[in-house]
Amino acid sequence: MTHTAVIHQAAALLLQHPGLQWPGRLPLIRASLTGLPGDEADILRRFCDAVADTPQLDLSARYIVTFDRSRRRTLHLTYYTDGDTRRRGESLLRWQHLYRAHGWQPPADELPDFLPLALEFAARCPAPGIRALTEHRAALELLRIALTDHRSPYADVVGAVCHTLPGAAPADRAAALRMARTGPPTETVGLLPFTAGPPSRAAR
Questions:
Q1: pLDDT of residue 179
Q2: Of 68, 78, 139, 188, which sits most exposed with the smallest number of CB within 10 A?
Q3: Cα 171 versus chain centre, distance
Q4: Which pLDDT score is estimated for 187?
Q5: How distant, in Å, are the alpha carbons of 14, 103, 140, 168 from that of 144?
Q6: Of the candidates 117, 128, 111, which has an alpha carbon nearest to the alpha carbon of residue 15?
Q7: What's this model's pTM, rounded to 2 decimal places?
Q8: Is 76 helix (H, G, I), strand (E, B) or coil?
């Protein structure tokens, strides 16, 4: 695995719900980051240190409050650009086509724009995965800013991901919102075209 792929895989695991397997998962993630150079690895190690002594049930409760009970901090990337609209259903289909085009089948019980899934895909298929993450840079930056405002340690995880992407970060939330409205210059590059139709059941 390349340096960036390790960062993306570690971030994917750290952004999953900290369930019963979390106490065993965290040491493995920290071990994968040991000796890894770069600011991104330092940022992820800082997150691991910040939550290391938090009981699993407490961290689980904090995770739910942080991500599941606030639309401003959702881990579903297309919500930041499409909201609850028909267009979002089309965006979700693009994610599905992207995964399938590279022989990758994500779990059926999660929407394809779920950030941990996108990060795991980027770790396994770096070129198309990084393009897709870059196309959703505005969503990632808005999530990072919202987590920072919430004073959540998870801001470090999303921040580390943003550090791996090309281009400059938006200066503030207003700039990130403008990016979300207009899209990066390479919007849809790497996301396969498809014939528009009704959104899938999962997207409704």
A1: 61
A2: 68
A3: 20
A4: 37
A5: 15, 30, 6, 14
A6: 117
A7: 0.83
A8: strand
